[in-house]
Amino acid sequence: MDGIRAGRMWVDHGGLLDGLDVRLRAGGQEVPLGGVLTARRGSPVRLVIRIDPARTPNWAQFVPRLAKVDVIRGAVTGAVSDRDVFTAPQTRVVRSYDVSGQTQTIALNYDLGRLDEGFYVRLRGSDGNRLAVGLNGPAVDPAGPPIDVVGDADPWRDLWFYTNPMWALPSA
Amino acid sequence: MSRLVVGLDLEHLNERRADHDLLALVRSLPDGAVAAAATHWAQLGERPHVALSMELAGTDADGLLQLLSGLAPRWSLALAGEVHGDPALAAPAEAARTAHADRRSGRAVHFPGAGLLVGTLAVREVLERSAVDRVCVLTAGDAAPDAAVVTREHVRPTWQGGELVLLTQPAVGGTLVPFETPDPTPCCVDH
Q1: Which of A146, A147, A149 sits opposite B172 (nearest CB)?
Q2: Closest chain B residue to A151 measured between Cα atoms?
Q3: Residue B125's pLDDT is what?
Q4: Do residues A38 and A171 lie in contact, with contact meaning Cβ atoms separated by under 8 Å?
Q5: Which 3 state secondary structure label does DSSP give B100?
Q6: The whole model's pTM is what?
Q7: Residues of B in contact with A154 (CB under 8 A)
Q8: What is the β-pairing status of strands B134-137 and B47-56?
Q9: Number of other residues whose CB lies within 10 A of the CB of residue B158
């Protein structure tokens, strides 16, 4: 329960992953999913990802194959003035990794640059079967989840995982 | 032709029941008396419910007023400048009236040509046969004029900024279906 309350959460569809460990590191500290990392402005920030792809069959009797991992980053800009707004400022997919064919633990390290304004980062991944340009265009999300086709959607052929975000905020 | 837009609130809990009573009201009035009828999500304190609006092809709401008394224990009818019935429901009734009159929002249940939107039609035919101004595909903008819309005999376009817009989504065989399903699985069935 403490883990859930602290936001250390990720979800997947159809047993796409066996395990996932993500850390955000800066200034000699690190936080897991749901964590807030406070570090001095100018500190280099690094994302450290370890993913165990599925090794056993899911309930549909096949071993799902992870094909890609996306890093999504957005700015922290304070409270919104219009609470009906549906977009997050500067949020976009900043890096996409092709991990198809990998059956052992996948290790990815992503350099997020030096900490200036606060930001958040989260991960998303897919079996790569169904991809489409996102609502806000290819500069924001070139290969996201497309809308289902009514009467022709097989959820087992369209598996994704999503993590909670982690935040990096400057202390000075 | 002069038209009168009225707002109604009979405290419907969902759109399905609202549709049923709204269409019953339309049928109870003389043929052609109602040009358009719509539903509107409304708030009464903390409780969301569905209010109604009707566009009457005349200037007089007396017939409607007589029907209402027998229909629900609490009701409100908003005309331009005056509200009949329960004062507690006056605000949502008036909000539904202005939303319909301004074509700002509202989900049209009865509208010119609604009865002709049956079977599978090209987008172009939907626009020609009915008051629908635009057909959009969810996440993809305007639908191609030749795209096939499988109506499922359930078409509920909404007013958006003065236009009556039918929102659709992709369906099997390259067709489109209205985004609103005729027989949705109720949310949180049985619990």
Answers
A1: A149
A2: B172
A3: 98
A4: yes
A5: helix
A6: 0.81
A7: none
A8: unpaired
A9: 18
